[in-house]
């Protein structure tokens, strides 16, 4: 709709300019001096009208340029949002692939041996891979805007209250901070997880009663 209006206005403007040039030329060629003098007086009387229409034309051109500039700005913003959304979707897809690989390693001991140790000389368990999977889930949820920063911090604090999660981060924190390579998102999540780890503090040692209950529960749940 807007391009049609602009095109119509341009056509009308060109027609008025053409008429403004041709009419005086025809009058000079066909009219005598007395008639031209009268038309001259009429023209002087109508000069304010011409100034008015000139001002209207100037405002119209300025408004058209303003609308075009705003449209271009909106298009640039939409392209930026689309590009950021595509990049975020690609990152989420890659993280989903990483999660699938961890799940395969959890289910298969031979595949788990392919992964390097969490830290040099540190033995890792099936639980370590599961803890890593849980933390990656929190990171993806935050980057996908499924949860806000306050929810992420609350979830990390709750996770670090787990003895196994705390033990995993104790082993993984140094290596995790060294492999991010200056990635802003990775550094941010590592810092948030490490803050929750520091705030949680070491969990209390397990008592003999707690260990006995765990052994009995494993036996009952076994084949």
Automatic annotation (TrEMBL):
Keyword Transmembrane helix belongs to the record: yes
Segments crossing the lipid bilayer: 7-29, 49-67
Keyword terms, alphabetized: Membrane, Transmembrane, Transmembrane helix
Superkingdom of the organism of origin: Bacteria
Name of protein: DUF6082 family protein
Organism of origin: Actinoallomurus acaciae
Organism classification: Bacteria, Bacillati, Actinomycetota, Actinomycetes, Streptosporangiales
């Amino acid at each position: 709709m807007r391009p049609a209006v602009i095109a119509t206005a341009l056509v009308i403007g060109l027609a008025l300019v053409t008429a403004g040039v041709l009419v005086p030329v025809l009058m000079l060629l066909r009219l005598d001096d007395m008639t031209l003098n009268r038309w001259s007086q009429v023209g002087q009387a109508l000069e304010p009208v011409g100034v008015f229409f000139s001002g209207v034309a100037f405002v119209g051109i300025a408004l058209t340029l303003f609308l075009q500039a705003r449209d271009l700005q909106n298009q640039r913003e939409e392209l930026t949002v689309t590009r950021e959304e595509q990049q975020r979707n690609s990152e989420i897809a890659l993280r989903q692939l990483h999660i699938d690989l961890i799940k395969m390693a959890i289910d298969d001991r031979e595949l788990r041996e392919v992964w390097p140790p969490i830290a040099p000389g540190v033995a890792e368990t099936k639980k370590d891979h599961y803890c890593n999977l849980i933390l990656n889930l929190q990171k993806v949820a935050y980057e996908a805007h499924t949860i806000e920063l306050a929810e992420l911090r609350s979830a990390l604090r709750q996770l670090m209250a787990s003895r196994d999660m705390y033990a995993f981060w104790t082993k993984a924190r140094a290596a995790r901070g060294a492999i991010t390579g200056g990635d802003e998102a990775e550094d941010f999540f590592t810092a948030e997880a490490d803050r929750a780890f520091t705030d949680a503090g070491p969990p209390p040692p397990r008592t003999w009663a707690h260990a006995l209950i765990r052994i009995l529960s494993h036996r009952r749940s076994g084949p």
